[in-house]
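S., here's the first fold you wanted:
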Amino acid sequence: MNDLFAFYLHELDHYRSDELIHHIDHDTWSISQMYDHLIVVSHEYLDEVEACQHAPVTESRKSPFGEQLFAAGAFPATPIRLPDAMNAPPDETDQVERLRTRWRQLIDRHATLAPIAQSTPSNQKTQHGGMGWLNTTEWYALISYHLTHHQHQKRRLDAALANRR
């Protein structure tokens, strides 16, 4: 996991301001939007890690999609389109230094919550809208699945930027 965080942090060094907000087309996020999305969603997952500490014990399970995802240990390599109500475009106003600061804050919070993710009983869970009931270990793992999933998107965006240079 630390390698993923380091990878994304290091990659910020490769972008000029205009490249951060470049859109390949109308339906594609910019690099800045992708980073904002990764930061926001990772913090949401970490919020759930914290919430599981105080969640009641439940025998509720993952959804079929959740079972499939955790069995594979990854999101599908194909893009996932959320329903429009959940798919507001991420912010793209942050420049490299602000993204770097937010990314470091995420790394720190992730490290701080590692002991909680490892020590909370596995039958204390909170519900994910698409994956069902997840415990702290699963919420914590979901962050790496999500970061890995977006590496495919990042490669496509980087290739488009390289063709533009």
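And the second, which I think is the more interesting of the pair:
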Amino acid sequence: MGWSSRNTKRIPNQGEAGDLIVPQGEREPSQFFVWGNLDNQPIIHFDSRKGRVETLVSWIEEVKKGTFLPVEWVFRSELENLSNLNNLTEELHTWQAIVGCELREDGNNDGFFRYGYDGMDFLSFKKETPRWVAAQPQAEKVKEKWEDHPGWSQKNKFYLEKICIKLLQRYLSYKKEALEKTEPPVGKVTHKVIDDSQEILVCEAYGFYPKEIQATWMRDGENWDQGTIRRNVAPNSDGTYYVWISIEIDPKERNRSHCHLEHDGLQEPLVLPFKEETGERLS
């Protein structure tokens, strides 16, 4: 499970003490974004301009309010602290943070905090030590400041080893429970005219779970591979899947071809012919 953050802010010139000097009325609000991923699948998004977390998969709706990663604590406070760097010009600067944890097959777990500044590696956290590693000379002052407060490092270590792992286990259980339900495919056949003697029929199957599906073109009741193109099964944002398979035919022989779908969610195979009155022309 991983969370990435991006904070964009225009930083004014700084005083010798490192405090921000912003003339009254000229402070510009920063834009703040967070993306949450589970097994490389986006599950949530936060945009400071909207001020709310948006769920990207249906099963995450089951997560109770308050169980999301505390956005303000994990990202904004550290990122705002980076504005204490010296010699920043009045330009647009971007701070990035990635935090995540993983459960391994051997029962062990791992976690990480990584920060970037204007697209470059900046700081990373080694929870085993626990210490911070500066990737840029500019990051040394931040590293020293954070390590002057051992409680801050221990707090991050505790989050990675305990809180993040518990959240990961909770999200995985919600996902497993939701996706154990079998969803049958919805299918349709569309066509694209090439010329008077050639057209392409496209069979689409979508909204199905689990991933395994047999999608084939049949001609006169037998499997037909000649002139077919198959797209790999791909995930939808809600955790279901979709696939399509096309075939080149002579329009005069259209009635000889049917799309054949087999899936665990179907009591019997779904046979789909092309119907002119319901077909969609592809541009």
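Why I say that: The chain has a mean pLDDT of 77. The chain is about 15% helix and 40% strand.

Talk tomorrow,
H.
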